[in-house]
What we know:
Elements lengths: L6 H10 L28 H8 L12 H29 L4 E3 L4 E3 L7 H5 L1 H6 L3 H11 L12 E2 H19 L2 H14 L13 E3 L4 E3 L7 E3 H4 L3 H11 L3 H14 L4 E2 L6 E2 L6 E3 L4 E2 L3 E3 L5 H13 L5 H17 L1 E3 L5 E3 L1 E3 L2 E3 L1 E3 L5 H12 L2 H19 L9 E3 L6 H5 L3 H10 L2 E4 L7 H13 L2 H18 E2 L2 E2 L1 E2 L6 H4 L4 E2 L4 H15 L10 E3 L5 E3 L9
Antiparallel strand pairs: 1-2, 3-4, 4-5, 6-9, 7-8, 9-10, 11-14, 12-13, 14-15, 16-17, 17-18, 19-20, 21-22, 23-24
Bound molecules: 2-acetamido-2-deoxy-beta-D-glucopyranose (4 copies).
One 2-acetamido-2-deoxy-beta-D-glucopyranose binds next to loops.
Pfam families: Glyco_hydro_47
Pathway: Protein modification; protein glycosylation
InterPro entries: 6hp_glycosidase-like_sf (IPR012341), Glyco_hydro_47 (IPR001382), Glycosyl_Hydrolase_47 (IPR050749), Seven-hairpin_glycosidases (IPR036026)
Amino acid sequence: MKMQLAAAGLLCLLLANGTHAAAARSPGSRAISGLYDRHGASANAARVNALRQRTVQHDFSDESSEDKRIRRQRAEAIKSGFLYAWSGYKQYAYGADELDVVNKRPRTTRNGWGATLVDALDTLWILGLEDEFHEARNMVAKIDFHNDGGQLAKVFETNIRYVGGLLAAHELSGDRMFLQKAVELTDLLMPAFNTPLGLPWQMLNITTGVGSSESPGGSSTNLAEIGTFQMEFFRLSQLTRNATYHEAAQNVITTMLARNPLQAPGGNYTIPGMYPTDFDMLAGKFTSSAAYWGGGGDSFYEYLAKTWYLSDFMLHRNLDLWNESIQSLAKYGVATSTSGLLFPGFLDGSKFYPYADTFTNFIPGTLALASKLVGSDSYFSLAEDLLEAGYSVFGEMPTSLGAEAIRFVRKNVPTDYQLLSSTAQAQVDKYGFVLSRPYYMLRPELIESLFYMYRLTGKTIYADRAWAIWQGIQRNCRIANGYVGTADVSVDASDTGIHNIVDSTESFFYAETFLYLYLIFADQDTISLDDWVFTTEAHPLSRANAFDGTF
Ligand SMILES: *[C@@H]1O[C@H](CO)[C@@H](O)[C@H](O)[C@H]1NC(C)=O
Ligand SMILES: *[C@@H]1O[C@H](CO)[C@@H](O)[C@H](O)[C@H]1NC(C)=O
Ligand SMILES: *[C@@H]1O[C@H](CO)[C@@H](O)[C@H](O)[C@H]1NC(C)=O
Ligand SMILES: *[C@@H]1O[C@H](CO)[C@@H](O)[C@H](O)[C@H]1NC(C)=O
């Protein structure tokens, strides 16, 4: 899962101890081609047919028996870790949204429908925990989505965790109860899209169907929260043969294409494919000039490429927009640090800020997959470079765990360093970056990218790195009854004997972190990247139904 955060707030934080440098300029050219016609005509049949012949996964048939033995042993270790976490959840919070591990009690954070239960269904299935899966299935059958638990529903989260979880459970098991539940819940969410531009409200009163913004009385939202429905809704339209869902989700593409992308304030140029994250859905306008591939923007970009793949390469507009975005990311959105690593940053108009949150770690994985699909070596090498930088944030730490957010110092921009506090400078000297937010909250994004890179290249170094991270989680996050976050990744619990706890165990830990860890060590044809596409919450959706443009 990627997250959203107010870009304006983040910008203030950056400016407080920030630095400035001008980004290069580009003319505002736009070339979006090959529009998908929902009535079935593909403008580009030859291209689509060529793409359909392609496979992306590495051929693992020559794996040595020693590598295989170690890999399978590790898969079993991950599975034991999962069972440990699951038994805590079962004992103290079964059917609840989350387990409060420290206080051994349930926590209601997502309308009380059982976020962890639903989010983890596919993990249970893929790990081969059949009895657990069937027990969970019977709990899910009893969920009443009409009872909102006295909370407004967060539309984006409800889609990625619940709708995605139910869909994947249906895909894997073939049990139609899950599909019926997914339809029931999505139909309850549909009133959120009842807005002038057809983009969803952030929050929804499930009982009345009245939408609202997270800031009371406002109409603000962000790219990720309006642009992370296309995969789930596309698959739902396929499975129900009802185009309504897909069309609602695709509105965001139409809306963005009709608007200018990132523009420098007072300037006369744009950065194609990069959109400010903050959007007023009633006014139909961007409300800041900050564009970011981390929290607030992330899964909007992610879904451009993945929905294209899921649609059997039919949704050209999504790919073209992705292609445009990646070129701008490569040109304006990344910078080399003093340690020689290529990090993504944060753009505000013409300014680049050397700041990366851990959500940006999804980029190498999705980019590597898309590069293999379109056959682009330069995009693939960009993905490898970004992964080296992202991994350094984990690998440089004694915990092997990465901070929630870092700042880095650009090579050739001395002020990046000079303007830092002496404490921050000392961190740059030691690690190559500043730990802006030094905690680790069991998030999956870097592990996710290691998974893609391992499956696409067969290089065991990616698996070994994931194993090191798992060891770090074991040392620092495992406590009685489950796993929690750790407050400072630069201090390892095995050195101090103290667990510096962040009391948080979100459903994505079971749904994503464990799933990607397991899949890195499982036999490589388990959920092959040639047959499945993972949503932003790591829910695999099947590519088995060829799409001809109609539902
Ligand atoms: C939903 O709207 C109804 C009617 O206005 C109200 O009674 C209820 O409290 C609202 N639910 C939430 C969670 O705010
Ligand atoms: C398609 O789904 C929408 C949204 O749930 C619903 O209103 C409509 O009746 C459905 N159409 C058909 C033909 O089932
Ligand atoms: C607009 O762009 C043109 C061509 O790049 C440049 O010559 C001109 O100075 C720019 N004007 C402003 C106001 O930036
Ligand atoms: C991406 O855009 C570039 C530049 O316009 C173009 O050369 C390339 O063919 C595009 N790639 C795909 C897969 O559309």
